[in-house]
Amino acid sequence: MQRAWFRVLKKKEAKMGGVSIEKLIDERRKEQNILEIQDQLQLEERLIYAKRTTRVTKGGKRFSFSALVIVGDRRGFVGFGLGKAREVPIAIAKAIEDGKKHIIRVPIVEGTVPHDVIGHYGPTMIKVMPARRGTGIVAGGAAKPIFELAGYTDVLTKILGSTNPNNVVRAVFDALLKLTTLEEEAKLRGISEEELRKRYKLYARV
Questions:
Q1: How far is CA 132 from the centre of its chain?
Q2: For the packed helices 143-150 and 165-178, what is the interaxial angle rounded to 10 degrees?
Q3: Strand, coil or helix: what is 45?
Q4: What are the pLDDT digits (tens) for 121-177?
Q5: Could you give the angle at the alpha carbon of 46 between the alpha carbons of 108 and 44, nearest 5°?
Q6: Is 43 helix (H, G, I), strand (E, B) or coil?
Q7: H-type helices in 40-164, by residue range?
């Protein structure tokens, strides 16, 4: 069943056409007016990788380093960035600056996500689900630091397809961009926001 679900989503993705996660993030940042509050955020950084890359030119091989970094304040703001340079520290510094340009605000309800959501990027797909208090962040590889620095404490995830860090990070952000706020979710369910929050408090008990 899981593989069938994976194949169906791949077909849907092919029909949708490629829309860059970076473009979607830029649109969300404008909606959330992130630029106005970005300098006030107390951000942490987490390095996903720093690896050497090689480019072959007519003059020979040129070596450089690329870095992938997650930034977040553990209070609902999180982003990711890439950096390239001839030295590792410079590549990491560039990745951090790039990450600040991709910060978005995500909804957190009692330490978890408001609802199930599926994110996908290329050959990678991730299903993100709410979890009870005390569950922790059940995510592997590059996905876990994103939820930690965003401020989630209890989340369940399932990754299908490629586990390439670049794909996983973008798939997670695709899922985060699809999350709705508590107010929006209450309207979809046809109940009050207070009633929905009570349900989450019950769900969050150990």
A1: 20
A2: 40
A3: strand
A4: 999 999 999 998 889 999 988 999 999 999 999 999 999 999 999 999 999 999 999
A5: 60
A6: coil
A7: 88-100, 143-150
Element (H, E) at 10: helix 2-16
Amino acid type, 45: E
Question: The dihedral of CA 22, 26, 27, 32: what is its sign?
Answer: positive
Residue with tokens 């996905």: 143
Return the closest-CA partner of residue 120 out of 147, 68, 160: 160
Q: What is the pTM of this model?
A: 0.82
Structure-block tokens of residue 68: 């992938």
Q: Where is 196: in which H helix or E strand?
A: helix 193-203
Of the CA atoms within 13 Å of residue 59, those in its CB half-sphere come to: 2
In the chain, the amino acid numbered 22 is: E
